[in-house]
Amino acid sequence: MNLPNKLTVSRFALTAAFLWAVFWRGPVNDTLALVLFCIASLTDYFDGKIARERNLITSFGTLMDPLADKILTCSAFIALVERHMKSMTAGDLPVVFQLGGFAVYPKVEAWMVVIIVARELAITGLRLLAASKNVVLAAERYGKHKTISQIAAIIALLVMDAYVEWWPWLRELFQPWTPWFALAALWLTVLLTFTSGMLYLWRNRNVYLQDT
Question: Is the pLDDT at 141 greater than 80, yes or no?
């Protein structure tokens, strides 16, 4: 197994470790979850970069790399739904602002995760259908932007949970702006995820319309 594929496989193990850190209640569990997710995200960058530069692109990597990405990000969003539900019940989520008498929090809603997971399943199904017809569907720019926005949103949300475990001077550095950034990044992610999915399905509609 070449190095890019090893990095891809390591992302599955890092995802499992990340989920354990999210749900394990300890003095620095949120910081550990943040570090593990960042490391897993870096493997996503380096496995593709190394594979292209060293001409180590394989069928295994082509299949497993996007799968590992989807499992990492979808697992993180699903885990954050539960974490934020518990935090809201306990009153631990910071209020970003008041809107019409309602407190606005930077939290992951279940309907947001439904959109994210449904998009990933739909695109994966489309690519499998295309592959069965010997058609290769290339990734698009919007899809790459979607992935970047998802990772940025997850990191921001994890930082928001983790900075309470940090030294006061470091917490004061992140606390004023992190909830705002997390809220903006989360909504941008939902918008890009939905838009990129619909555009991809529309532009490649011939793949599935041929069978109707």
Answer: no
